[in-house]
Amino acid sequence: MKSVDIRKAFLAFFESKGHKVVPSAPMVIKDDPTLMFTNAGMNQFKDLFLGNSAIKDLRVANSQKCLRVSGKHNDLEEVGVDTYHHTMFEMLGNWSFGDYFKEEAIEWAWELLTDIYKLDKDRLYVTVFEGDSSENLKVDQEAIDLWKQHIAEDRILMGNKKDNFWEMGDVGPCGPCSEIHIDLRSAEERMKTDGATLVNMDHPQVIEIWNLVFMQYNRMKDQSLVPLKSTHIDTGMGFERLAMALQGKTSNYDTDIFMPLINKIEDLSGLNYKPVDEDKHKQALEINIAMRVIADHIRAIAFSIADGQLPSNNGAGYVIRRILRRAVRYGYQTLNLKEPFLCRLVPTLANQMGEAFPELNNQKMLIEKVIREEEISFFRTLETGLKRIDQICINLNAEGKKEVPGEAVFELYDTYGFPVDLTNLIAQGYEMTLDQEGFEKALEEQKNRSRKAAETDTSDWVVLKEDDAEEFIGYDYTEGDVYITRYREVTVKDKTIYQLVFSYTPFYPEGGGQIGDTGYIELDGEKTFIFDTKKENNLILHFAKELPKVLNGRFKAVVNSAKRKLTSNNHTATHLVHAALRTVLGEHVEQKGSLVTDKSLRFDFSHFSKVTPEEIKQVEDLVNQEIRANHELEETRQIPLEKAREAGAMMLFGEKYADVVRMIKFGDSIELCGGIHVPSTSQIGTFKIINEGSVAAGIRRIEAITSEAADQYINDQLDTLASAKETLKNPKDLTKAIHDLLEQNSKLQKEVEALKKEQAKGAKDEILKNAKEINGIKFISAKVALDAASVKDIAYQIKGQEDSFFFIVGSYDGPKAMLTIMISDDLVKEKGLHAGNIIRELAKEIGGGGGGQPFFATAGGKNPDGIENALTKAEELL
Ligand code: ATP
Ligand code: MG
User: Fold this and answer.
1) Which of 457, 483, 749, 842 has a CB 3.0–4.6 Å from the CB of 491, allowing a cystine?
2) Higher pLDDT, 388 or 117
């Protein structure tokens, strides 16, 4: 069975059991501060389990892109080393939200695996939760009894809390689970060792393929378990592992999901992926691991970029950058790939997975370009790092030391991304060892530092009032009478703030690029300020520095509406500029990020060259036209996603759209957006772009301002212009006047230079005329009114045309005096004259000091009247 068909069969099966098939949510999470990446199929349904959102479909199935590289689920170190853990993988899942429970979940899982996929029942084992006395949890007898109807009792194994109690993170929904494992070993080996003894023992061919989670509890901050209002089913089956089982392979990488990538890497490196007993062939093992790491990582990187997450210096972007660098290092170190190669795998990947995930094809060029740039810059870092290691080793060698200090190893690791074994390899070339212990210490210290910096302490919710959903009324109102339904305390770096949830709220929570509202709530004359508003798990959190003294009561909630109005100007302008960019630059322009505040707007988009000043002007003109056309806001608050698509609404990859969306239309601009907009475009007043630049390969950024800020900006520019005009005595044509001035200036400059040359030439002739013979030496001396540079020039000219001379010129410039001595080389050699020493003596006459080389020296002083004496003294000396 081809992998494409395996995926289709899964979804079709659950559709036949009344499940609604939904698309994968984005892999990069944008609105949940507790999670950077989707790490399980259930993430997007978290608020349904917690009861924060209304349930629309009781049964759902999908294939979810997951990434397990950080936080509670982090498989990064296993990836490539083993053959069945990936960074990015697809999780096939079926869900029941308060509908069916264990019985159907177990029955259908079994039916699909054995009837539809026809897996050999003799190779399957299941595990159930054995209970845990410390948590007061009993053995899951219900699951055991249900499994007995399908599978022999000796294939039902007990599992402990670590394996059979599923938790998404430190807090949140959780419950006991039942896993299905498969034994893929050869008949011979299965005869030798009973598969049941290898379940959950990290055997590469006896592995878990499916986990059925019975969601029953919410894990609280104090670690207690509180039962959920209703029970749910959450299952996750590893698509790549299933493909391995169904395609008769013993490694995920041997399936049709990875083989094309592995083949391409073989092509690029000229090496072979060898299916050998890796324990016995160390070199083949290393090459195989490197190829697996690269085949795996390219997927994580490409899918993240398609989801709108570019590699960067912090947060999710940094995680992606690290994955990319890890892949490059393996290629560089083991496969001898010394030029960008990851970007060359993108077409293969798009070819392989583009049908199921069209974003890969649509954004292929951008993905390739971004990866290529990242690779180039990392290769540069690697080169610099290599030089650094060499230098460190050479220095140590010179000092007779034989060990590279731990801090140096850490610096290479931290700054240049050098893995310790690579540093070790290079150090070996210098017959040196590494201070492993010192390195570990430095690493540990850094971890502690960053842990401290990121430490957040969040208390459990204090519930004041039971309430179902917290409605947002902010599209229609900026005020409302609300209750506080719950609150909690959050401490970050010793600073404590409070997050409040209301019965309903006019406050817009940060989202869609737009900043959160600020304002206050008031009760009995006491105002509590709200300094930010954000969304988490579908709850709108209002941030306050203090709690109100009285918590129970009807508060008047008031949004800072002046600030919000300015923000809405910028938000609507963002839509207009998006449309204008597509008109002026082309349809390839796609939004890659935005920031909308009350002060300005920022818009990032895909485009492969600089936006020219003419194009900027066209975009500005278009936006201003749309502003003046005074388009009224056409808002459809609830429209099915499909209908919105038909209406021509722009949709972005990496955005998680609900089935029913809000559609915002101004003239020809139609977008799906939850933000706050102007009632009609003329409110925006003026639109002005103040910056254009690049943020990453293939991504440009525009910064712009609107309304009063734009007026202010334009007025400032006009002021500057007016003062320039005034300075130039109000010419009719300012540009021409400046141009003329510059031209005149450069003409004058040329003239001055010519004159100076002339003057110096005259001075030189004059000086030479006064030369006299003293003891066979040509003594050239003069007192002149020239600048230092001209005298030096003359001195060197004379050096070029005369022999056996002694040149001394005293020059002055107002109160400043200068002496310059030049002596021909033959005199320096034969007579041992030294200009530097001589001038030090003579400088006294002009009240200063100086020095220089044997043939040339200068001195400066404050007494021009002493020049004559200095010249006489020189003459006497000779
Ligand atoms: P394992 O113990 O093998 O790491 P797990 O207990 O972490 O698995 P779950 O969190 O229950 O796995 O995820 C559900 C399913 O997703 C697993 O049964 C497995 O098939 C698949 N899966 C989990 N982690 C990975 C991964 N890193 N790469 C590929 N598939 C995975
Ligand atoms: Mg795991």
Assistant:
1) 457
2) 117
Indicate if ligand 1 lies below 6 Å from the C-beta of 237.
Answer: yes
Instruction: Say yes or no to pLDDT of 125 above 80.
Output: yes
Evaluate if residue 9 carries a pLDDT over 90.
yes
- Compute, in angstroms, the gap from residue 91 CA to the centroid of ligand 1: 8
Q: Is 89's C-beta closer than 6 angstroms to any atom of ligand 1?
A: yes
Entry field: residues in the chain: 878
Does residue 75 line the site of ligand 1, with CB under 6 A? yes
- The confidence score (pLDDT) of residue 417 equals 75
The predicted structure's pLDDT at residue 31? 67
Considering the entire predicted model, what is its pTM? 0.72
Residue 496: name the closest of 466, 523, 458, 525 by CA: 458
The rounded Å distance from CA 93 to ligand 2 centre is 16
Tokens for 465, please give them. 């009032």
200 falls within a domain: yes
Residue 355 has pLDDT above 90, yes or no: no
> In testing the pocket of ligand 1, which one of 89, 124, 201 has its CB within 8 Å of the most ligand atoms?
89
Residue 413: per-residue pLDDT: 86
SS (H, E, C) 116-175: HCCCCHHHEEEEEECCEHHHCECCCHHHHHHHHCCCCHHHEEEECHHHHEEECCCCEEEE
pLDDT at 312: 85
Q: Is residue 392 part of a domain?
A: yes
Please check whether residues 527 and 594 belong to one and the same domain.
no
First to last CA, the chain: 105
In this structure, what CATH number is given to the domain that contains residue 153?
Answer: 3.30.930.10
pLDDT given at position 878: 86
Q: DSSP for 680-739? A: BGGGG--EEEEEEEEEETTEEEEEEEEHHHHHHHHHHHHHHHHHHHHHTT--SSHHHHHH
Cross-strand partners of 156: 126
For residue range 23-77, list pLDDT tens digits in order: 899 999 876 767 889 999 988 898 888 877 888 899 999 999 999 998 778 898 8
> Which range marks the domain in which residue 407 is found?
375-448
572 with 691, same domain: the answer is yes
Instruction: For residue 198, give the DSSP letter.
Output: G
What does the pLDDT read at residue 481? 96
pLDDT-based confidence at residue 278 (cuts at 50, 70, 90): low
Q: Which residue has the tokens 């199929």?
A: 41
| Number of domains comprising the chain | 6
Ligand 1 touching residue 210 (CB < 6 A): yes
